[in-house]
């Protein structure tokens, strides 16, 4: 292999405290938003209409929070997870500022933990990645941990250093959109008459609809974010691999599930935080994604009478409608479950 | 099913005179236009070039008329046709003002007719839907009628009320673009030297080219318009249904046929009105669409020496070239016909 | 066939010295760039970030050079190659000015050579095509030659007139971006620490990654450029043809190879010229593209201490990784080779 191609980092290349500024800064445009809207059935009104967005205090419609996440995340792949065996989890993900078309997004990661596995062949790397816009404002901050191969198995194991992470983001730490006021939102235009106060802890919602993912679609989305993970794009190599097929980027399933939640959570147009996320099983081209959600918690927000927060757990399945709310078992998950996502949304009151 | 998901309206939920403001207002961008141009072989010069558009009096290139139609139409689906058995027809569709990137489009429908079917299980709902931009200017107005299931078959039938609809829109009622002048259009740049006066009533044009529709493509287009009709997206459910496959949105076939007409009608870059439209047979991923047109009528336009109108009937087929002009039979249609569209276009003289 | 559809030009329709202004001028938008970025794994930082582009002297991020090429090329198809049997080659292609979203691009071709083949059924047409923006500035200029069918084989052969073409564009003739200065480029953000001086003549780079092309993807790209070549879109006709399938537009493979070169040539974000290009074998939906490059030459550029030029030969293959650098044989090419491209890139020093 040429020394000029990117070999990615191996487990022994990471050190706690190390800071990795990632390539490539990316200017996000209304074109990116359109491609995203063609790939996911997005209908949240705040992101759909500049007029509605201006009416509640934004300069224009912000981009979907998960689209911002994918751009920030995509940049970390060449440095963090090119040699990853598995993406193990997310925690403490906070959406800090809206992203608008025209913004240029960069990502920097800091290694915050390392733990070699007992097999001596792999280790877990914990990074906090922060996305910023062209003014240096942080737009997104999250922790993820991945299992990465060692390049040289004889390298001695580092001192284990596992960061302590919150199981849920505290609503007091939410970065709420300033100078906004959602109290006058027209529910006829948003597509749902159900506001924050209408949801109760323990309530379950089957989002009903199913959407099939095509190979062209998940590759287009994943390329748009400049995510270079090889397993999504190369049928020649993957055809000889474990699954015999390309894997769908896990974030694609998150966006699809998020879009499906519109049917039942139509006013949940902002994500405040992601507490935890688990890709329970792989998805492939041709799979049809369904989703259901449970309300885990509700929270008022300091100084805001116009919005409140809902903590949701959204489960996505493939080729299985969610009529029976398939979820976690004592060990493992019900047949068909592919995603288990725990997050906070903001909703008008 | 959660009470918070959208069950759609059933036949008995509609009343004549009822007004339905639809979610979701949508700001249209040059990104939407680019996605559309990647899915349909659009070449009409007015929509292709800001410079050409400015030269004839527009502020910039307007979006394709059918793209505007799809956005206006898409919003009506959750309220009008989520429980539809069939989309029966269109009438009296007029394009009232150009739509530009940056415009935010909303749709309101009014129920103008109801007729229960004799089986007591379904009924026909007639609605007039009107699309407006952010200034309240109407951009598009049309009638469609759909067969909708009853939710509760014991609900008594309403008094039948069938609106009287024109078989063709009168050219005197066309909303012509003001302050435009098409007389200086450069035919080398538009791609066709044939102007309004070159077309004769009865003339038939085989548009020659065929374009295959992929599953990813029709889903991307239909999602872009926020059309939520379930049959286009869910292979898991449709695989067990009548056709064993996802259905292509009928409007996709209209746009494809419209794009194909460029080859023979290259200067017909504006649609003034749609008189009638019929989706003769369903289309599926993998089908190749062909089209031919007949000139049904020609009309001069009051006070305009720069443009005239042609009434066209465009027939689209699948997997059958239109060399023999397949069309309507005494009963039904020739093999392969999927669309029968009667409309008025504007063309420079 | 209606006289109003475009029959294309046949060999006998061309005359040396003939000038063909092509339809359709096209305003390029950030939406087009987004669709392109969703179809090819583009990561070159200059095109990715408005901020980076401004930092080196541009008004904003220019579009990818190959995207500009495809728009300029696409317009020539209806007039030059609708009746082509084969696209034989490119030469003397120079990128003359950056193209930005908002620019409107037109193309004019001039016939510069003709030579009938000895079979009397076809002939070779040489054209120089020039793309210009809305101010009349030339953005791109290239020669290609195609084998075109005769419409009437009894037409006498023209006097053979074969233009003399350079085998390589002279770096002294490059149109370098004025008022730019690449010396301060941040290699952490560009994704590669290798600059002009790090590459040596004879060096070979296997770009490692492979990307599979889906039918929807190549059709979307090719439609975006308004390229009307029939063989890319019509499965009904092509299914009965020589290959039994749609052909992927050769330019799609060039863009894919170009995007793959990022891994090893991450700072080669500008193409100065294409010396020669050959589509060695056809590509189809489902093929996985790989690429490798050899440095053929290096050149300093007059008056520029911030950038230098590399002459590259990039070979693309299908369904064959480039570990062994498959290339040209004494006769023909190694198994799997689909593209042989000789071009100059600019790179910071």
A few lines on this structure:
Chain A has helices at residues 30-39, 45-48, 50-55, 65-81, 187-190, 215-224, 235-238, 250-260; strands spanning 19-21, 26-27, 84-95, 104-116, 122-132, 138-149, 204-206, 211-212, 270-279, 288-301, 304-318, 337-348. Chain A has 349 residues and is of the alpha+beta class.
CATH architecture of chain A: Roll
Please name the CATH topology of chain A: Thiol Ester Dehydrase, Chain A
Work out the radius of gyration of chain A.
20 Å
Fourth-level CATH superfamily of chain A: Hotdog Thioesterase
How many helices of chain A in DSSP terms?
A: 8
Describe this structure in words.
The first copy, chain A, is α+β, with helices and mostly antiparallel strands and 349 residues long. Chain A has one domain: Hotdog Thioesterase (Thiol Ester Dehydrase, Chain A), CATH 3.10.129. Chain A has 8 helices and 12 strands. Chain A has helices spanning 30-39, 45-48, 50-55, 65-81, 187-190, 215-224, 235-238, 250-260; strands spanning 19-21, 26-27, 84-95, 104-116, 122-132, 138-149, 204-206, 211-212, 270-279, 288-301, 304-318, 337-348. In chain A, strands 1, 2, 3, 4, 5, 6, 7, 8, 9, 10, 11 and 12 form a 12-stranded antiparallel β-sheet that branches. In chain A, strand 10 (288-301) and strand 11 (304-318) form a beta hairpin. The longest helix of chain A has 17 residues, at 65-81. The termini of chain A are far apart. The model of chain A has no long low-confidence stretch (mean pLDDT 96).
